[in-house]
User: Fold this.
Amino acid sequence: MSHYCSIKVEWNDPEAIIDMLAEFFGIARSDVLFDLAGLPVHNFGGEDITKPNNTTERVAPCHIVVPRKYVKGIVGHGAIGDVAVRRKPDGTWETEIDWYSWHKPQEQVIGEMGQLYGVARTRRLAQAAGYKVKNITRGQDGKVRMVLGKGR
Assistant:
C-alpha cells in the first residue's frame, strides 16, 4: 500500500536537484528523469498514479523522477514507488515520496537530501564562477567542508 506525502522543500535549481538525487541514490545522473512538461509517477505496483482513478491516491505529474527500480536499492526491501519532485506554479518545489517501505524517518531523509542539494548547488555555482572543487569532506557531526580553488 502506497503512502505518498508531499513535502515543500527549499530547492530552486533543477540541475542541482538532479545531481543531488543521483548522488543520494547512487545512480547515474542520466537515470534521473527530467521534463518540465511533466512526467508520470508510479506507485509500488507500477501504476501511473498521475492518471485519474477512483481507488488509488493521485498526485500531479512531476518534473524530476527517480524510477522505483533505483529507489529500491536505498530503501532495502519492500514495495516502493518512484521518488519525484514537482515545480509548482509559484516556482517552489515539492517532493512526492511513497514513504510506506522507507526505514528512515521523513525528516532524516529530507535532511540528507537537503544537505546533498546544498553541496550540489554550491558546486554548480563555484564552477560557474571558475572555481574547481578540490575536496569535499563530511565530518562525524554531519557538517560538510568544501575546498574550492582556481586553476589546477
About this structure: The chain has one domain: 4-149. Residues 49 and 58 are 5 Å apart (CA to CA). Helices lie at 14-25, 68-75, 106-128. Strands lie at 4-9, 33-39, 62-66, 83-87, 93-98, 132-138, 144-149.
